[in-house]
Amino acid sequence: MVKKCLILLVIITTTVFAEDNICRYEKKTETVNGAIITTTEVKVCNETIQLDEKTFWEKFISSPQYTDTLIIILAAILNK
Question: CB under 8 Å, gap of 24 or more: what pairs does 24-28 form?
Fold first, then answer.
C-alpha cells in the first residue's frame, strides 16, 4: 500500500504542464532542378516564467481538484 501511495505521489509531482511553453517548428528547403540547395530549420518557443508562483505543495493543498487525492493519501497513511 505504501508503494502505491509513493507511486501516486511521484506521478502527481512529475506532471508536466506544457501549456505555457509552446514551440513551433518550421523547415524550409530550397531546391533547384530537384536538387536540395539549402535546408533551414527554425524553432520558435514562447516560454513564460511566472514570478511569485505558489510552490507545488501550496497548490496541491489549496487546490480543490486535488482534495480527493490528498484525502485518499492521508487515509492510506493513517490506515497503516
Answer: none
